Amino acid sequence: MAAPETTARGAGPALLFPSSSSSSSSTSARAEAVVIFTICDSFVRRPDQAERVIGTLLGSFLPDGTVHVRNAYVVPHSESADQVALDIEYHHNMYASHQKVNPKEVIVGWFSTGFGVSGGSTLIHEFYSREVTSPIHLTVDTGFTMGEASIKAYVSSNLSLGDRHLAAQFQEIPLDLKMLDAEKVGFEMLKSTVVDKLPNDLEGMESSMQKLYALIDEIYKYSDDVVEGRVAADNKIGRFIADAVSSMPKLSPSSFDRLFNDRIQDNLALVYLSSITRTQIAVAEKLNTAAQVL
User: Fold this and answer.
1) Average of pLDDT values for 48-67?
2) What are the beta bridge partners of residue 67?
3) What is the distance between the alpha carbons of residues 180 and 2, in angstroms, rounded to a whole number?
4) What's the rounded Cα separation, in Å, for the pair 71 and 74?
5) Residue 83: how many other CB atoms lie within 10 Å
6) Under 8 Å between Cβ of 7 and 83
7) C-alpha distances in angstroms, 161 versus 17, 82, 158, 171, 172?
8) CA 10, CA 7: separation in Å to the nearest integer?
9) Helices in 51-119 by DSSP H: which ranges?
């Protein structure tokens, strides 16, 4: 798996700057939720001896300088204190496969799990700088170093003194995570804490309803405070509340109960059919194995 192009020793240190005053061409980054979930899933499935996973980010460069990250895949690697090796052949094969499916998605950078930028990041970023101009580096803190899953994006520039390369300067850039409502639920669970197990459908629904009740109580309290004159009215908040109320369908309690129960029955039927399908597949695999042995 060794890759001479990405193997290096004694590289310069990586300097981290939290501000965005760098003169890089990439001013901000935008990532889809599927990218974050792919990285987290890859970290769970990593080899036992691997401390982190790294991989390639795919997407597009927007005219305003924003890097839109839409997809990602893991690249096998090995690293030590002063050496990093990437499986370049695997990387190129995976990229060629993605290009056949969606040629509009190009390499925009790379990702790694862990908190912040490490010394080996300089070597990997150097390789991706040869793959694409001004790549971004996305980090996902799967170890919850600061109590939650921190996700940050960086760009890099070289610091030199004359002809001598001193270090790589990683500059943090604004990162916007694009998520649907259903994706936000899973992401909030991932970034908040480590859970013993994922909730089932009923537990997830119960948790969502409790959060909904809490939000409704907060709106009630705010409305009462405005009416009683304890809080100054905010037209913007009022419009948000009005839009939320008007978006709700006008259903009688009996119609809502019937619709809700029908959806529950449909979900239970899907769970039952999925269980039967898994059982049939397992039986078919065992029969196939037995037939091959005989």
Assistant:
1) 87
2) 29, 61
3) 40
4) 11
5) 16
6) yes
7) 19, 23, 10, 19, 23
8) 10
9) 88-101
Contact present, 79 and 49 (Cβ < 8 Å): no
Report residue 109 as tokens: 């950078």
Q: What is the pLDDT of residues 122-145, one digit of tens each?
A: 778 888 888 888 888 888 887 766
Q: In the predicted model, what is the mean pLDDT of the chain?
A: 78
Q: Which residues face 60 on adjacent strands? A: 68
Q: What angle do CA 31, 40, 35 make, to 5 degrees?
A: 20
Cross-strand partners of 113: 140
Question: Is residue 25 within 8 Å of residue 35, measured between CB atoms?
Answer: no
The whole-number average pLDDT for the span 210-239 is 89
For the record, the structure tokens of 60 come out as: 């597009």
SS3 32: strand
The closest alpha carbon to 155, from 109, 92, 204, belongs to 109
pLDDT band at 1, cuts 50/70/90? very low
Tally of residues, the chain: 294
Q: How sure is the predictor about 2, in pLDDT bands with cuts at 50, 70 and 90? A: very low
- Both tokens of 58, joined, read 């795919």
Q: Which alpha helices (H) appear in 193-252, and where do they start and end? A: 201-228, 235-247
